Amino acid sequence: MAGLEVLFSCVSGAITRPQDVVVCFVHWEFVQSGYKCLGTGDEPRDGDRKSELLPAGWNTSGELYTLRYRSNDDKSNLLFKAITVDSTLIFNVMDSATEQVSDLTVNVSDYIDAEHLHEFDSVFKNTEDLAKNVKIKLLPSVKGESSKKAEKKRDDPPAYSKTDEPLRIPTRAPSSSRQPNWSDPLAPFAAGGSDLDPFGGRAGGMIVDPLRQGFPRSGFDPSGGVLPPGAVPPGARFDPFGPVGRRRPGPDPDHMPPPGYDDMFM
């Protein structure tokens, strides 16, 4: 990786722990991506200048690394922090202009051989994987583009086929091809005719006609004033209901007043 060996040679005398080597590698990835280091600490200082090298005192703490970067076109300023947690390094980068935050957690032993800290040819391993993670997950420019693509992809309407929509309502046929089953508006009982004329032979209605419900006819005529056999209990008085048909019923005890009907004590 061009330039990394020169950088490592410049800082190898100050390297005391594997975490230092990881920070050195990440710093060079920032330089490769168009950034220069301004110095250490959270706040700008007088005399800050952009450099490809790591500033003096960059690894003094050993547990917290704080560096500031600026893009080559001076449009972006980054605050870089790396925190040591056991055998891992947690990186956090914030773009001060957009306040966009990126983070990355690295297992140090996956990328650094601790037994060869000062040997450039032996100290690094899996550098391609580490470089890929830094560019995708940590650098704001690359991460921002990836996020925009992902958001655009989420915003695009999904392409469904007709078979993928179980709740899809089928397309209705043109109104010209369907004739509604409406009653004749000129009929006298068009609205509510089944209820107004229950025995007129119309379908539906609220009044049940016992003669049209699929039961066998008993041969009686309701208009004749006669009920089916057994409809009136034996001995009960029952006046026939009208209108009277052609066959008038015979005399009935109720046709004549009972004896003493005008006796109030009866």
From TrEMBL:
GO terms for MF: endopeptidase inhibitor activity; proteasome binding
Family annotation (Gene3D superfamilies): 3.40.1000.30
Annotated ranges, domain PI31 proteasome regulator C-terminal: 176-243
Compositionally biased intervals (Basic and acidic residues): 145-167
Domain of life: Eukaryota
GO biological process assignments: proteasome-mediated ubiquitin-dependent protein catabolic process
Subcellular location: Cytoplasm; Endoplasmic reticulum
Biased composition (Polar residues): 173-182
Record's GO cellular component terms: endoplasmic reticulum; proteasome complex
Region listing for Disordered, in residue ranges: 143-193, 217-266
Compositional bias annotation for Low complexity: 224-244
Ranges where the PI31 proteasome regulator N-terminal domain occurs: 14-145
Key words, A-Z: Acetylation, Cytoplasm, Endoplasmic reticulum, Methylation, Phosphoprotein, Proteasome
Main localization of the protein described in the UniProt heading: cytoplasm
Function: Plays an important role in control of proteasome function. Inhibits the hydrolysis of protein and peptide substrates by the 20S proteasome. Also inhibits the activation of the proteasome by the proteasome regulatory proteins PA700 and PA28.
Protein family: Belongs to the proteasome inhibitor PI31 family.
PANTHER family: PROTEASOME INHIBITOR (PTHR13266), PROTEASOME INHIBITOR PI31 SUBUNIT (PTHR13266:SF1)
Protein name per its UniProtKB record: Proteasome inhibitor PI31 subunit
